[in-house]
Amino acid sequence: MDNATGERAGYRRSAGSPRGEARRRELLAKITEDVAENGLVDFSLRRAARAAGTTHKVLLYHFESAEDLLRQVVFALRERRIGNALAAIAATPATLTDRVRAAWESLRDEETRLRRVLDQAMGLAMYDPGRYAALGRGASGQYLPTLLEFCPPDWPERRKFEVASMILATLRGFLVDLLTSPDGDGAAAGFEALLRAVEREEAAP
């Protein structure tokens, strides 16, 4: 991937300008679709510029670096995943168990390419944390608020956090299993055990 550190000197950012912000969002949307389609392998400012129909210098006007652009792309794709899950639970009963089941069905059935891109992002964070740690740190920060909202409102905040963290870590493991196993039987079996654990939590005083 390009390292833009040496290239961005002399370029100013468009933050604060409504017109500049609109252009930044337009560019980000085009690049996000390219990443969703083609993954993160060989991602660079020049590849992103081709996808957006512009130049890498223009991208450096709107984004701090290649890493900053990639972080925003991954954020947008995670927001897409969360939006899909929330749409899936909209008509479900308001129990934590039912919401977790509906969210998992959305995750399980989502486009393979979206799942692969988001897993690639986590792989980059583990492989080169010096450059891409933000890709990993940002994941829990995006997902946890939604899972906390799934929990019963009368639960103490600490209990909500503990249960939501358990659900998040477990579902992320199941998603990896779906990508690496031929049939997904392990994820399916494990998910039923997770649901039983969630049901016990809901039944507890």
From TrEMBL:
SUPFAM superfamilies (UniProt xref): Homeodomain-like (SSF46689)
PROSITE patterns linked to this entry: HTH_TETR_2
Highest taxon listed in the record's lineage: Bacteria
Statement: the UniProt record of this protein carries the keyword DNA-binding: yes
Keyword DNA-binding: yes
HTH tetR-type domain span: 21-81
Regions crossing the membrane: none
GO MF annotation list: DNA binding
InterPro entries per the UniProt record, alphabetical: Homeodomain-like_sf, HTH_TetR
Record's keyword terms, sorted: DNA-binding
DNA-binding region: 44-63
Signal peptide per UniProt: none
Chain segments carrying region Disordered: 1-22
Name of protein: HTH tetR-type domain-containing protein
